Structure formats: C-alpha cells, structure tokens
Amino acid sequence: MENLTNSTKEDPMMKNSSNRILIKNGIVVNADNIMKNDIYIEEGIIKMVGLNLPEPEDTRIIDATSFLVMPGGIDPHTHLELEFMGAVSVDDFYHGTKAAVAGGTTMIMDFALPDKDESLIDVYHKWRARATNKVCCDYALHIGIAKWSAEVKTQMEELCKVYGVNSFKMFMAYKGVYMLNDTDLYNSFEACKNLGAIPMVHAENGDIIFENTKRLLDSGITGANGHALSRPEEVEAEAVNRACVISKQVGSPLYIVHVMSKSAANILAEHRTAQIKEEGRTKIFGETLAAAVGTHWDENKINCWHDAAAHVLSPPLRSDPDTPHFLLNLLANDALQTTGSDNATFNANQKALGENNFSKIPNGVNGVEDRMSVIWEKGVESNMFDPCRFVEITSTNAAKIFNIYPRKGCIGVGSDADIVIWNPNKKRTISAKTHHQAVDYNIFEGMECHGVPEYVLVGGRVCVDNGVLKVFKGQGKYIPTPTNSQFVYNKPNTFC
Ligand code: URP
Ligand code: ZN
Ligand code: ZN
Ligand code: ZN
Predict the structure, then answer these.
(1) Is Membrane included in the keywords of this UniProt record (predicted)?
(2) How does DSSP assign 415-461, residue by residue?
C-alpha cells in the first residue's frame, strides 16, 4: 500500500518541543473497563497509562479530576460537501470536522459517492482532494457503488490494495441514481467477501418508493409529509431482510447503515440471532443515528413546511414516538452496534428545491457535532446503558469493524491520542444559533444535554481547551482502513 497519510504539517498550537501532555486524575473509560488512571502522551501517541505517572519536564498537565476520559468519538457516517439531489451539502470538510471536534468526535468516515459512470478511483481522489487541506480531525473513506460491472470489481480491488479502503456502500433506494438490483447486490457483496471488505447497505425498497411517490404526487400530496408516506417502516424492513438474505447466500458480512425504525431493527436483530445460532457468531452489524434516537417525526413540533423539510432524511424519522427508546434498547443489548450522524446538511434555500414536490427535497440532517451529546443524554443520562457501552457504540465498535482498532477507539499504550475529556455534570442546550456547523437548522434545537467536552485531543493536539475550540484547518490525517477486519471476519489479520 502506498504511503497515504498527509505529511506532518506545521502546527501553530504545538507549544512544547516534544508535545508532551499528561492527563491526570481522570476516570478512564474504555469499552471494556473503567478506572482511575493518568495518561501520558508524546508526539500524538499514548505512551503510558497508569496511576501517579511521573511528570517529565516540559509537559502540559491537564487536570481531569471529576471528568471522564474517553476515546474520541468515531462517526462512521458523514456526507460532507456531497453533491446530492441538485444541491451540495453545506457542511464542507472544514466546517463539518470542526463541528465534529467541538462535540467530541475525533474521526469521521465519509462516503465518497460516484456518479454512475465515474471511476471509483477518480471519486476516491476527488474526495481526498476535497478533504486534505480542510479536515480538523482524522478521516477515512467508504466508497459508493452506483452500478455493477467488471471494471467496478477491479477498481474495488485497487481501492482495497492500494488506497486503504475496506468498505463500500450499496444503495437499495434512490432508483435511477444509486439503486442496485439484487443481482448487483449479490455480486458486490461477493466482491467484498473476496477482498475482505465490508458491504454497507442503505436498506429501503427503491422500487416501492418510486411507485408510492408517483401515486402520492398524482393524488395531490406534495408536502414534506409525503416523504415518509412514500417509504413506511415495512419498506425499510423488507430491504433489511433482503440484504440479510443476500449476504447469507453469499457468505459475506453486512453492515446496515442508518437503521431508522422498530420493524427494520427487529428484522436485523432476528438475522443476527439466527446467524449466531447457526454459526456461533455473526457478521451482520447495524448502525442507527443520533437523529433516530434523539428525535422522531413529531407533528406538534413541526410548525411549517421549512421545519418539515429540515427533518427530511432517508430512511425517514418515524412518527411512532417509541422509536428512539426502542432503538436505544437495542443499542444497549448489542442488537445494534454503532451510532452515526449521517450528517448531510442542506440550508433552507436548498431544501426549498422540493417546495412543490417532496421527492425533490434534498435528503439529510445534521448530527456530526451533537451525536456524542445526544447519545450520552438519551443513553447514559437516561440509564439505558453505562459509559463503557457509550464508548463502544460511539467509537470502539466502529474502530473494530473498520479495522483500525486499537489505533483508534481505545485509550491504551500505542493508541493515537484521540481523547475526549467529558464533563458529565455540565449541561448545554443545543441550538443552530450556537452550533459550529455551517447549516442554518438543528433538528435537536432546544434539547438540553448533560455531558460536555471540556478538552478534546486529536492526535495529541488540544483542540478543545478548557471548553474553547482551537482547531487547525488541515490538521487531520487520512486513516487507511485495512481489509480483513478480525472483528468482522474472525480470521488472522494480516496488517497489524
Ligand atoms: O437522507 C439521507 N440519509 N441523506 C444522505 C444520503 C444517504 O442515504 O445516506
Ligand atoms: Zn443512505
Ligand atoms: Zn418556519
Ligand atoms: Zn448517509
């Protein structure tokens, strides 16, 4: 594999020559344990974890007394500066990653989505060029598969072997744009299996949505509520079932992105349980979103078309008010493994493209900044799960699935110093007026969250310093994701 990481850049925030930091007196939370410890960092890497560590000269001391010290969040699902449905998402790699860091996320995984006839290698380079000089945190790329062909298969192999990509997104929806049929899904899952890569699936039945949309528009339903009417829960659940069946026939792993409904989550959980029964383990994984556990489609809170359009994403927010609690329960019980933001943000003037036709509203919501706080508030503060599980579903599991653990997703000797120092007692109220994102709306507006990052370290750089955001544009690195994740494939890992 070629050397893919950015060269080390001059960082005006690096004060001492050896970049030494000692985090003292905090409660260190990993997915598998929680204990009081100090952490010593040098040149961006955790060098020591233990009690009463010595204080070498020329070391910055951060006192973490009464704070939790956790691996920085990994958001496995973002769409920064994505051209989609006639608009470009307004959070670019600078604003999106700056906001991520402000919220305690130290790495994002963005989807590079090709046009139908675009080479996957070209789209990879396009995304790297967009990101390189803007990213404020580390990033990796998933690559979209918009059609199936022998060339695509060869390009997938090159991406895995040369460019550090180990995950591909296939769409069962967005007919005519990204949607693949079952044969294409079968073939692309098989290619992933042969490469040791991970097929990620947007599971909604695109044919049904296409027909429903026509029928709704013909009957005069053009408003934003038509979006969810065109794609009810069973349309999501059917696709989850089909993706699970296809992956089982192929023998490939499967990662379902943005599980948004009770029905879909139940089907996923059933397939996981069945596979565990049959094979002793499962290669099926499920991601839900901060949006899905933090809010729902609540007519009482939607005052106008603009509000409604701002909440439009696919699969849609469900009107069943039990959905967030239900999904949180599945996160607690390991029926779901990860939480993303699916950050794909469009301003009011862009959402207005669908003013007379819901099917033209650019799909997507915010979340890259607030994901950690929302999951903490709804999960830990509400006693659904403990801080270890919080770390697991916001960071560690993504690192394991995408094969960058323990470099990421862990506070341990040798890991990158991507750390969030979390004050569980401080509160903040989410608002578009104060968020760091470029978008003009926040779907969590007014939500009071416990849990505030006091310090955020990205590769050993203190980017939130006593609550003050101090990012450096372009400081993030591209993180290659090697194939054959042991967590996914359970076979010897040839890379680490
Ligand atoms: O509505 C959404 N989810 N927008 C982003 C594209 C996708 O399907 O993930
Ligand atoms: Zn999707
Ligand atoms: Zn309004
Ligand atoms: Zn998405």
Answers:
(1) no
(2) SB--EEEEEEEEEEE--TTT-SSSSS--TTTT-EEEEEEEEEEETTE
Across 330-370, the runs of DSSP E, i.e. the strands, are 338-340
Give residue 496's pLDDT: 35
User: Three-class SS of residue 136?
Assistant: coil
For the residues of 138-164, what is the DSSP string, one character each? EEEEEEEE-S--HHHHHHHHHHHHHS-
How far is residue 318's CA from residue 316's CA, in Å, rounded to a whole number? 6
Instruction: Extract the residue ranges of the chain whose pLDDT is less than 70.
Output: 1-18, 491-496
How many CB atoms are closer than 10 A to CB 79?
Answer: 22
Tokens 């000797």 sit on residue: 413
Q: Which pLDDT belongs to residue 490? A: 85
Closest residue by Cα to residue 361 from 376, 346, 339: 346
- Could you tell me if the CB of 363 is within 6 A of ligand 1? yes
- Beta carbon of 311 within 6 Å of any ligand 1 atom: no
Fold of 72-413: TIM Barrel (3.20.20)
- 372 C-beta neighbours (distance < 10 Å), count: 30
Identify the pLDDT of residue 4: 62
The dihedral built from the CA positions of residue 419, 496, 152 and 398, taken in this order, carries a sign that is negative
Is residue 364 within 6 Å of ligand 1 at its C-beta?
yes
C-beta atoms surrounding 218 within 10 Å: 8
Nearest to 212 by CA among 203, 221, 199: 221
- State pTM to two decimals: 0.96
Q: Which atom of ligand 1 is nearest to the CA of 173?
A: 8
Label residue 12 exposed, middle or buried (CB < 10 Å: 0-12, 13-18, 19+): exposed
What is residue 495's predicted lDDT score, i.e. its pLDDT? 40
Q: How is residue 248 written in tokens? A: 């089982």
Q: In angstroms, what is the C-alpha Rg of the chain?
A: 21
| Strand ranges in 310-367 using DSSP code E only, listed in sequence order | 338-340
Amino acid identity, position 302: I
Q: How high is the pLDDT of residue 160?
A: 98
Nearest CA to ligand 1 atom 4: 364
Residue 447 is encoded by which pair of tokens? Answer: 């939500």
Helices (H), 64-119: 93-102
Say how many C-beta atoms besides its own lie within 10 A of residue 384's C-beta: 18
What number is the ipTM of this complex?
0.95
- Cis peptide leading into 315, omega within 30 of 0? yes
Q: Is the CB of 342 under 6 A from ligand 1?
A: yes
What separation in Å is there between the alpha carbon of 308 and the centre of ligand 3? 9
Q: How many Å apart are CA 188 and CA 425, to the nearest integer?
A: 47
